[in-house]
Amino acid sequence: MLTRLTRYGPAVPRLLSNVQARYVSQSKPAGAAGSAAVTELHPAAEAGHGEVNPYVKNPDYHGFSSDPVVDDWNMKVGFFFGISVVLVIGGTFISYLPDHGMRKWARREAEHLIVQKEKEGLPLIGENYYDPSKIVLPTAGEE
After folding, report:
1. Domain span at residue 118?
2. pLDDT tens digits along 85-139
């Protein structure tokens, strides 16, 4: 497993670096070697442009509101109540589910029968599971 992870070693610094600039050539593609200029990744909003990227105003945008304070508050409240509902109500629901296969009931019933038979002085397990007088065996001719 560790040998598989070492393959990704050289790529980790590239994945973790958060470069906010990109290199775009500003020269005509006539020459073999062109110069590169650094431009903004998020260009400033133009005056006539109607749509504004919410990530420019709030880099921690969660999608709840365009106001950064309200967006952060709504995200925290939503996750708190979502996780609380799942853990508290979900845990309560699971704990109040009925006994699967009635295993607990069967154990309680067996313990009750053991106590009852001990009080009456009877053996816990008889030598015959069924009453032999009630068993009907076929005759030799019916076989």
Report:
1. 54-122
2. 889 999 999 999 988 889 999 999 999 999 999 999 999 988 888 888 999 988 8
- Domain total for the chain? 1
Residue 104 lies in a domain: yes
SS3 content of the chain, % helix, strand, coil (to 5): 45, 5, 45
Distance CA 40, CA 23 (A): 9
Tell me the two tokens of residue 14. 């590239």
Q: Is the pTM of this model over 0.90?
A: no
Rounded alpha-carbon distances, angstroms, from residue 87 to 12, 76, 83, 96:
35, 16, 6, 14
Contact status, residue 39 vs residue 24, Cβ threshold 8 Å: yes
What phi and psi, each to the nearest 5 degrees, are found at residue 123? -70, 150
The per-residue DSSP string of 93-107 comes to: HHHTSPPGGGHHHHH
